[in-house]
Amino acid sequence: MTGHDRALARAPQVAAPATLVLTRPDDWHLHLRDEPYLADVVRHSAERFGRAIVMPNLDPPVTTTARALAYRDRIVACLPRPEAFRPLMTLYLTAETSPAEIRAAKQSGVVHGVKYYPVGTTTHSHHGVSDPEQVSTALAAMEEVGLPLLVHGESPDAGVDAFDREAVFIDRTLDPLIRRFSHLRVVLEHLSTARAVDFVAAAPPHVGGTVTAHHLLLNRSAIFDGGLRPHLYCAPVLKRESDRRALVGAVTGGNPKFFLGTDSAPHARTAKESSPGRAGVFTAHAAIELYAECFAAAGALDRLEAFASLHGAAFYGLPPNRERLTLVRRSHSIPETLPFGDGELVPFRAGGTVEWSLARAASQEGAR
């Protein structure tokens, strides 16, 4: 029995309907990389989501509105149906980010947030923030114009245990920052601990949090299940079973402060199976299906639409998507690898199955 299976076995098993129709969901935290990988990655998200907040941690990073617009054009050029998927761009916050750039980003109508990476905490974060004071004028401008701050919430302090970095960052950095900029809209991304759940729940209404499918389905034991599992290594790392349960409770509880953000982060297989291995889990190929699996196991499928399709849109001040998406309770197999430029990547649940399918995919299988 895998770690995933054990986690689901502990959850209450409630009969799920055979079909689930949702307002087309959005992904409020997504990594698409860039050419030559972009076309292989974006098609998975475009098939499932109406919009996505696209992360700016390219190399070089997306630090200006001009770069964000150019990146958006490259994404749209890879879409088979550009009208069906809208990339929402972000800027990478650095010590050089000026108030003028923040205002230009807001006025563009294309940039919907600014990403705060503590330096050295994740992929391409070496351009990030080492001291919040470095970016205080940019934060003040963001507060003024209403541009959200999207936070990778981990302490960069090498002396902090890897499993404590989220909690320490909240206490030392994020809580004081929110108190100082009391009207700044903030998203604490990829929550991984009960501490983060409690913090977001107790914070002012303009503070929200995203939760990934892999943090909902797995605890840290899965990384070592039958041997080291490099394709389950992510930042922040998976945490205790008690933390996973707190996350499930948060997303299924109906609180609008919590919304879907996959943090799907593709890396070439060689980059994951190396030393040091890259942090990131690729879930875009079955993202909404994996969330449905979690909500079904918790007996809360009736609350999936709000979490996946409504809460995030409301936080960002956008209307829900008009289109609908249909899931069917029919398992489908996940390939061992997927194309990734001139190489390959290993997707989440590779070689296994997911319990839900997109209706179109299910009908296509039945036609073969």
The proportion of strand residues reads 15-25%
Number of β-strand runs:
15
Largest beta sheet: strand ordering = 2-3-4-5-6-7-8-9
Order of helices and strands: HEEHEHEHEHEHEHEHHEHHHEEEEEEH
Termini separation comes to 31 Å
Rounded radius of gyration (Å): 19 Å
Largest sheet: 8 strands, parallel
Average predicted confidence as pLDDT? 92
Number of helices: 13
Shape: globular
Q: What ranges have pLDDT less than 50 throughout 5 or more consecutive residues? A: 1-13, 361-368
List the helices and strands and how they pair.
Elements: H1 3-10, E1 19-23, E2 27-30, H2 38-48, E3 51-54, H3 65-77, E4 86-92, H4 99-108, E5 111-116, H5 136-145, E6 149-151, H6 165-180, E7 186-188, H7 194-202, E8 207-211, H8 213-217, H9 241-252, E9 258-260, H10 269-272, H11 287-297, H12 304-315, E10 324-328, E11 332-333, E12 338-340, E13 343-345, E14 353-354, E15 357-358, H13 359-367
Parallel strand pairs: 2-3, 3-4, 4-5, 5-6, 6-7, 7-8, 8-9
Antiparallel strand pairs: 1-10, 10-15, 11-14, 12-13
Keywords:
35% helix, eight-stranded parallel beta sheet, alpha/beta, globular, disordered C terminus, 13 helices, three-stranded antiparallel beta sheet, 15% strand, 368 residues
What does this structure look like?
The chain is of the alpha/beta class. It has 13 helices and 15 strands. It has helices at 3-10, 38-48, 65-77, 99-108, 136-145, 165-180, 194-202, 213-217, 241-252, 269-272, 287-297, 304-315, 359-367, and strands at residues 19-23, 27-30, 51-54, 86-92, 111-116, 149-151, 186-188, 207-211, 258-260, 324-328, 332-333, 338-340, 343-345, 353-354, 357-358. Strands 2-3-4-5-6-7-8-9 form an eight-stranded parallel sheet. A three-stranded antiparallel sheet has the order 1-10-15. A hairpin with a 2-residue loop joins β12 and β13 (343-345). α4 (99-108) packs parallel to α5. The longest helix has 16 residues, at 165-180. The chain is globular. The two termini are 31 Å apart. Mean pLDDT is 92; it is low at 1-13 and 361-368.
